[in-house]
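Exercise 3.2. Students should predict the tertiary structure of the chain below and write it as structure tokens, then compare their answer with the key that follows.

Predict this chain's 3D structure.
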Amino acid sequence: MSEEISIDDFMAESTKGNTITTEQLDELCVNYAGARNEYEQAKERATDLYNVAESLKGKVVEAMTQAGKSKYYVEGIGTFGFKDKMSVKTPKTLEDKQTLWKYLEEKYGSEVVWDKFGINSQTLNSFYNSELEIFNDKAKAGEVSGDFHLPGIEAPTAQRDLKITKEKKK
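Answer key:
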């Protein structure tokens, strides 16, 4: 089984020699919580403003369409106009994905296909963790030995994020 180091051990090793008082830590936590709260409120306000803007944009598009205008100038603001674009959805079924893959491979070659297709980061991490769990279970049962490695994937890096569990009001 691969030598596993917990994230706590990793972080402890990387911060050796650093000292901070509880007062300093309290102040940092209070400042962070305040900034995070302000950010969350601003994000909510931004979402509300975005929704208002999108609603008004829809009304402008509808009004310009009804008026038969493809461009419309408003003094002090500028010219409003339409920008049309086409978009397609990515294939969802395995059959559709295989059909697209085959078409691209036949038309452009396998190098182009491999260059165009990727794996979403969250999907890859979920798959990696699932494979690691299966490997560790098999290692505990004595079915496999050695280090876990997913071909083509670099070793994972440790990342630590901060979470706040709000204090319960008494």
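Discussion points: The chain is about 55% helix and 5% strand. The helical segments are 7-14, 22-66, 94-108, 110-116, 121-140.
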